[in-house]
């Protein structure tokens, strides 16, 4: 009895991976073993950097809030402490946006919690 290998599924799986490596340089786009390794590593980087992106944005928001708070005569930590004490629930993303794009609104929030 001949050996049964599911060539259809294997081919489909390889085609799918090679399609994802489109645009890579050299053998990384069309040689199966090289493309497979490159794709796997790329997916690892993508997973890792989705987490890193969140950290980077939070750090950016904090820097922006700190800069705007210092104009108002407070440090970042003092401002956050006052916000918590006054039970003002506003996240850092929105606070940073206000600090950058709507300084009057940011100033009003600072005056409210002082």
Question: Would you mind describing this structure in some detail?
Answer:
- By secondary structure, the protein is mainly alpha-helical.
- It has a single domain, classed as Ribosomal protein L20, C-terminal domain (c-terminal domain of poly(a) binding protein), CATH 1.10.1900.
- The chain has five helices and no strands.
As a whole number of angstroms, the C-alpha radius of gyration is 26 Å
- Main sheet properties: none
Total domain units: 1
Give the percentage of residues in beta strands: under 5%
**Gap between N and C termini, in Å?**
85 Å
Q: Quickly give the CATH architecture.
A: Orthogonal Bundle
Q: Within the CATH hierarchy, at the fold level, what is the topology? A: c-terminal domain of poly(a) binding protein
Number of helices: 5
What's this entry about, in short?
The protein has five helices and no strands. It has 114 residues and is an all-alpha fold.
Question: How would you summarize the topology of this molecule?
Answer:
Layout: H1 7-20, H2 32-71, H3 76-85, H4 92-101, H5 103-113
Keywords for this structure?
114 residues, mainly alpha
